[in-house]
Specification:
single chain, 432 residues, mainly alpha, 3-stranded antiparallel beta sheet, 6% strand, globular, binds s-citryldethia Coenzyme A
């Protein structure tokens, strides 16, 4: 019998042994590929809460313990000791760079900050009040027209790892430029060219803040804080947007079309869009005179679809380690940048009440990465409309590394789930 489960169809008495596959960490999986052939059955798992759709070496989440690992390294250690670009190198290659490789990678990213001049015209087509996520997802999809050659990466025989690294460097380095252009267009500001004399994260703040004459005030502590935020968002297993990227990858579409699909999925308020909603909620609570109990009661009310944004997670049934790192970061920053202490107090109070309430305890609803990020981003003078684009910038490397892994998985097939049909059957069109 070995490592397998036996399924018996009680209707026919037929039974099948299905192999159990074990990873290096985490929950083993049942390989069900023969289920339909042997028993004529599919599985049903809405939201894929118990379904693995790929194998991966990139990141691992221990939901029970509240731990996250990138290529086997703990996120708390990485956030404290490594730059975001070194984390990009780790996710793309499997190893942290040595000093020489780190400098070379930094230079390769800097030389790719710039966009083709005609791509700038795209922003003018959008109404000024467009949400930057709309222009960002369009801008990334448009990149596929400027780098058609990367479509060849969908044919493993045509391209090698070198071509992949070029494609990955381009998307990592150009997404901040597109995001900054999207924001400045939404405010009617002139677009600011990237500055290749500035490190990745400093350059993003520069493009957001610079006056037309090139002046911009940027503190080192702001660069370091935002760099850590990018690192904490870099990858996170098979979340909804990464699954969107892998699904588009499986059809053989251009890699930048897959990243654009990931941006679209991340925008949702249940996913990356939650960081913007958390700040709105904290402000609403603060403006209501801190009537936190009213919000907690609404979150618990089964007849109210109100959710406490920044709380809960499909995988974490403990404190999200990224929320822990962000909370530590803002405690460190409190005396250096203007953290909104009023909102911070509301957040701390909300967390304290929620974590002592049976409703949240029974459902293991803890603060997730989005709960504290908005308070720090506000202190970094990042506009609220740019919160989710900041998440996109951090996650871009994870998406492209996941794309490459999916593309090179020999067992990869086009993603094509089945359904349980519950519609009408055998209907005839009546002759009038
Ligand atoms: C991200 O997957 C990832 O890895 C995502 C992410 C990443 O890095 O890529 O970590 C980033 O998306 C973080 C999550 C950001 N979203 C939010 O903060 C939005 C608020 N949270 C929820 O909408 C919810 O918790 C989800 C979407 C995050 C998870 O949803 P699930 O796993 O489908 O859980 P569920 O909706 O089935 O909830 C289980 C129970 C339900 O109650 P009952 O029906 O059992 O009575 O918990 C309740 C839910 O009503 N619940 C909440 C709640 N979240 C879940 N109740 C109040 N407030 C909440 N936030």
């Amino acid at each position: 019998m070995g490592n397998s489960v036996t399924i018996i169809d009680n209707r026919s008495g037929k039974k099948i042994d299905l192999p159990i596959l074990e990873g290096n960490r985490g929950t083993p999986v049942i390989d069900i590929k023969d289920l339909n052939k042997e028993l004529g059955l599919f599985t049903f798992d809405n939201g894929f809460s118990s379904t693995a759709h790929c194998k991966s070496e990139l990141s691992f989440i221990d939901g029970e313990k509240g731990e996250l690992f990138y290529r086997g390294y703990r996120i708390a250690d990485i956030a404290e000791k490594k730059s975001y670009l070194d984390v990009c190198y780790l996710l793309l290659t499997g190893e942290f760079p040595n000093e020489k490789n780190s400098l070379e990678f930094d230079m390769l990213i800097r030389k790719r900050y710039f966009l083709h001049e005609t791509l700038k015209e795209l922003f003018r087509a959008f109404p000024e009040n467009s949400h930057p996520m709309a222009t960002l997802s369009s801008g990334v999809a448009a990149l596929s027209s400027f780098y058609r050659e990367h479509l060849d990466l969908c044919d493993n025989k045509k391209c090698g790892t070198f071509d992949y690294f070029i494609m990955a460097q381009r998307i990592i380095s150009k997404i901040p430029t597109i995001a900054a252009y999207s924001y400045r267009h939404s405010k009617g500001l002139s677009l600011v060219y990237p500055d290749a004399n500035r490190y990745f994260t400093e350059n993003f703040l520069y493009m957001l803040r610079a006056y037309p004459n090139g002046d911009a005030e940027i503190k080192d502590i702001e660069v370091k804080s935002l760099d850590t935020i990018f690192t904490l968002h870099a990858d996170h297993g098979q979340n909804a947007s990464t699954t969107a990227v892998r699904t588009v990858c499986s059809t053989g579409a251009h890699p930048y079309a897959a990243i654009s699909a990931g941006i679209g999925a991340l925008w949702g308020r249940a996913h990356g869009g939650a960081n913007e909603q958390v700040l709105n909620q904290l402000r609403e609570i603060s403006d209501s005179g801190n009537d936190i109990k009213k919000f907690i009661d609404r979150a618990k009310d089964p007849n109210d679809d109100f959710r406490l944004m920044g709380f809960g997670h499909r995988v974490y049934k403990n404190y999200d380690p990224r929320a822990k790192s962000l909370k530590e970061l803002q405690d460190k920053l409190k005396n250096e940048i203007n953290i909104d202490n009023k909102l911070l107090e509301v957040a701390y109070r909300l967390e304290e009440i929620a974590l002592s309430d049976d409703y949240f305890i029974e459902r293991k609803l803890y603060p997730n990465v989005d709960f504290y990020s908005g308070i720090i981003l506000t202190a970094l003078k990042i506009p609220i409309s740019m919160f989710t684009p900041v998440f996109v910038i951090g996650r871009s490397v994870g998406w492209i590394a996941q794309w490459f892994e999916h593309r090179h998985d020999p067992s990869m097939r086009i993603a094509r789930p089945r359904q349980l049909y519950i519609g009408k059957v055998d209907r005839k069109i009546e002759d009038n």
